[in-house]
C-alpha cells in the first residue's frame, strides 16, 4: 500500500465516524446503552483522545504514550463541543499521516503494549479501532431510540 491510499482509507473512515457522531441528538450525549457501557459522548471522545495520544507519541511531541489527554465528557459535554474537538484532532491526525509518505509508512514504531508495527499496520489497526467504536455508537443510538445517520449512501 502507498501512503496516499492509506490516507484516503483513514479519511473515508473518519468521515463516516464524524457523520455518526453528528447524529447524536442534543441531550443524548450522556446516554449509556447499558450498565458498564460508555456514554455516546465518551465513545466519541475515546476515539479523539486515542488519536491525540497516538499522534503526540508517534510524532515525538510527548516522550511516552499519555492516555489521559483531558479529552473527556466533562470538558466536551455537548455534541457541538465533541464535533469541535473531533474536527481539530482530525486535522492534526490527517497532517501526521499525510506527512509520513511512502517511506514513513514502512518505518516501525515501538508500541506501548509491546512489540512494534510499521506505520502502515499501525494506522490500519487504528482504522479498525475507530470502526469498532463507530459500530458501538450506531448501536448506542438505536438503543436510545435514534435512527443513526446513513453513512453508506
Describe the structure.
With about 150 residues, the chain is mainly alpha-helical. It has one domain: Four Helix Bundle (Hemerythrin (Met), subunit A), CATH 1.20.120. The protein has helices at about 5-20, 40-60, 80-105, 120-145, and strands at about 110, 115-120. Strand 1 and strand 2 (about 115-120) form a beta hairpin. Helix 2 (about 40-60) runs parallel beside helix 3. It starts with a helix and ends in a 10-residue tail after the last helix.
Content of β-strand: under 5%
- From the coordinates shown, what is the CATH architecture? Up-down Bundle
- CATH evolutionary superfamily: dinb family like domain
Which sheet architecture does the biggest sheet show? Answer: 2 strands, antiparallel
Mean pLDDT value? 96
Radius of gyration: 16 Å
* CATH topology grouping: Four Helix Bundle (Hemerythrin (Met), subunit A)
Distance between the ends? 26 Å
Domain count: the total is 1
> What's the CATH class, please?
Mainly Alpha
Helix content: 55-70%
Continuous helix count: 4
* Class inferred from helices and paired strands: mainly alpha
Spatial strand arrangement across the major sheet: 1-2
